[in-house]
From TrEMBL:
It holds the Pfam family zf-C2H2. The keyword Repeat applies. PANTHER family: IP01015P-RELATED. This is Putative rcg38665-like protein. GO terms for cellular component: nucleus. Its main location: nucleus.
Length: 103
């Protein structure tokens, strides 16, 4: 409960020794520390790749399975990652989020 209360108070008592980031939970700090140490605890069972976060490993395994769970609502295209779907959706919406500074 104390940890949850920090989301409301904004208190971040767990501070990184390497940079200015601070966290509400010690587990978040430990996970963040891997960005500085390069420690990668999650190993792919199908290739030699390793990852700092389980979520990265899960996303990577889609390469081996061929699964593409992200489906376009406008056409039959599917994507392994949500980011690919977001970029693709711009084709349908005409959204152009990047502006040329010279035009």
């Amino acid at each position: 409960l104390q940890s949850h209360n920090r989301t409301h108070t904004g208190e971040k008592p767990f501070k990184c020794k390497h940079c200015l980031k601070a966290f509400t939970q010690n587990s978040y700090l430990r996970r963040h520390n891997r960005t500085h140490t390069g420690e990668k605890l999650f190993n792919c069972k199908q290739c030699p790749k390793t990852f700092a976060r389980n979520s990265q490993l899960q996303r990577h395994t889609l390469i081996h399975t061929g699964k593409k769970p992200f489906k376009c609502k406008h056409c039959p295209k599917t994507f392994a990652e949500n980011s690919g779907l977001r970029v693709h959706n711009r084709m349908h919406t005409g959204e152009k989020p990047f502006k040329c500074k010279q035009c």
